[in-house]
């Protein structure tokens, strides 16, 4: 599928002339990723003018569901939702790669990312509209789902350094937790799932290699149990 970019140019003639000085290269195609997967694309900005350009790239994103994130990075500096980065491009040259990443969360969705390219010296803006899509989950990835509660299985599994679980829980729910047990049934650790967050990450490097079982409980009622394998 092709992404549709809608480019809004200022009515002013000067803005049109500015657009001829700057070209956004390789920013095409919609950004599609899978459930709890990451898709990364890169693009560049070419400066055709005889002067250095300082370009601020600002992103504004519609509501992102299920813990998905859209991140933009340039030379180690990254911006999240409604943040910006500023880059300098020498005269008659091309910028380094600008990276955009769509991290799929806990549910499928379609959204829009708006990118604004602002020339700080002449105060002109070009806007681009980028379609974002997270595909449907596989049933094997779903640990528990009911009403306002959606919890995904730990990944990766087997785990070596860490295992991550993404979830969404209603703010009205209390005492949601994950209990990790070894094959003998002994509790290794208990982790609270706060409604204010959507991700639980556990360090598996400190665990002995082997098979573990994790259980989701809400108000001390066990709702689901699944196996986690730890390797070295």
TrEMBL record:
UniProt signal peptide? 1-19
Origin superkingdom: Bacteria
Q: Which residues cross the membrane?
A: none
User: Per UniProt, which keywords does this protein have?
Assistant: Signal
Q: Where is the Secretion system C-terminal sorting domain?
A: 155-230
Key word rRNA processing present: no
Q: Does the keyword Signal apply?
A: yes
A Pfam family: Por_Secre_tail
Give the NCBIfam families listed for this entry.
Por_Secre_tail
Put simply, this protein is called: Por secretion system C-terminal sorting domain-containing protein
Organism of derivation:
Marivirga sericea
